[in-house]
Amino acid sequence: MKEMILGLSMSLLMITILLMIGDLDQYKEQRIRLKSVSEEVAASAAQYKTLEEYADGYLHFNQVEGNKAADFTLQRHLNLNNTFTPQAPNYWINTPNIEKQITYIDYSNYKTYLVNPADDLEAFPKEYRFTHFGETFTTWLLGPSVVVSINAGKPNYRLKFLQLYVERPEQPDVIEHGIHTLEE
Amino acid sequence: MQSYIVSAFILIFFFMGLGQFVNEQQMETNRSGFALAIENAAQHARMEGYFTPDIKDDMLEAIEDQTTISKSEVRVLELTETQVCTRQGFSESNQIHYKIAIPIKNVIIGASFLGITDAENMYWYPLQGSVASEKICKG
C-alpha cells in the first residue's frame, strides 16, 4: 500500500511538472509569434506615404491607409474577426479583444540632417520616448518609423493554479512591441 | 515480490514522463521550424507579388529540412498563386494570403500502450497571414 500511495503521488507530481513545462513552452512560443506579428503589422503600416510631401523630399506616413493595413494584417495573422475578437482555433481565445496602439514618427516630427544641419537636436537619429498601454519605453530611431504595440491579454495555461495566478489584476498583460524603420 | 511488481509498474510511468518531456521539445522544434519557413517564404512572395512555384517548392523543402514532417504531409489550405500588384492606398486585393497547416503527431508518448489511436494522438497546427505585395506592375 505504501508503494502504491508513493507511486500515485509521484505520477501526479510528474504530470503536473510535464503540464507546467508544456504550458510555459507554449507561452514562450506564442510570445515569439506575437513579436513577429507586431513587426509584420508595423511593416505593413509603414508602406503608405503622402505623395505631396514625398514629392518635396519628405517622407510623411499616410496614417489613414496605414491604420487600415495594420488592422487587416493583425486580423489575418492572429485569426481575429472585425471587432478583434479571437476566433477558434486560437491561443488567445480567452481575451475578449486584442488591442493595438500605433505611433508614426516621420519628418513631420523630426527633420533630416540633409535639410538643415544646424537643427542637429531635431534630426534623426533620435532617442524617442513613447507610451503604449501605460508603459513608457525609450528607443533609438534611425529614420521614419512606425511603432506598434499589441496587447493580447492574459496567457492561456492549462494548469488551474498557474491560470489563477496570472489572471489576478496586478499581473501584467502580454504586450509585444514592433518597430519598422525606413532608412534612406 | 509485491513491491517489485508495483515499482516495475511505476517505473513504466516514470519513463513515459521522461519520454514525454523529450517529445514536447520535439514538437516545439517542429512548430518553430515551420513558422520560420513560412515567414521566410512570405517575405520572398512579397517581392514577386505571389507565391511562385519556386517559392512554394523552397518553402516545402524548408519545412522538410527544419521539421520531422515530410513534404507530402503539409496541408496548403490557402495560397495566393496569381500575381497581385502594389497600389497607392490599402486594398485587400493587393494582399498575398497564406494558410498552411502541419500535422503534429505523437502528442502523447506510448499512446498505443494507453489505448489511444494514432488519429486521436495528433492535431493540425495551422499558420495564416497576409503580406502586402511590393511588385510594381507595368501598365
Can you give a write-up of this model?
Chain A is an alpha+beta fold. Chain A contains four helices and five strands, in the order H-H-H-E-E-E-E-H-E. In chain A, 39% of the residues lie in helices and 19% in strands. The N and C termini of chain A lie far apart (75 Å). Chain B has one domain (2-132). Chain B has helices at 2-48, 53-66, and strands at residues 75-79, 95-104, 123-132. The A-B interface holds A 3-4, 7, 10-11, 14-15, 17-18, 21-22, 25, 29, 32-33, 36-37, 40, 44, 47-48, 51, 62, 65-66, 68-69, 72-73, 76-77, 79, 89 and B 2-3, 6-7, 9-10, 13-14, 17, 20-21, 24-25, 28, 31-32, 35, 39, 88-90, 92, 95, 97, 126, 128-132.
Unreliably modeled segments of chain B: none
Biggest sheet layout of chain B: 3 strands, antiparallel
**Most extensive contact:** A-B, 33 and 30 residues
Question: Quick one: biggest sheet of chain A?
Answer: 3 strands, antiparallel
Helix-strand pattern of chain A, N to C?
Answer: HHHEEEEHE
Main-sheet strand order of chain A equals 1-4-5
Fraction in beta strands of chain B: 15-25%
Helix and strand layout, with pairings?
The complex is a heterodimer of chains A (184) and B (139).
Chain A (H helix, E strand, L loop, with lengths): L1 H44 L5 H5 L7 H16 L20 E7 L20 E7 L2 E7 L3 E7 L8 H7 L8 E7 L3
Antiparallel strand pairs in A: 1-4, 2-3, 4-5
Chain B lengths: L1 H47 L4 H14 L8 E5 L15 E10 L18 E10 L7
Antiparallel strand pairs in B: 1-2, 2-3
Helix pairs in contact in B: 1-2
In short:
The complex is a heterodimer of chains A (184) and B (139). Chain A has 4 helices and 5 strands; from the N terminus they run αααββββαβ. Chain A has 184 residues and is of the alpha+beta class.
Structure keywords:
heterodimer, A: alpha+beta, two-stranded antiparallel ribbon, B: 139 residues, alpha+beta, three-stranded antiparallel sheet, 3 strands, rod-shaped
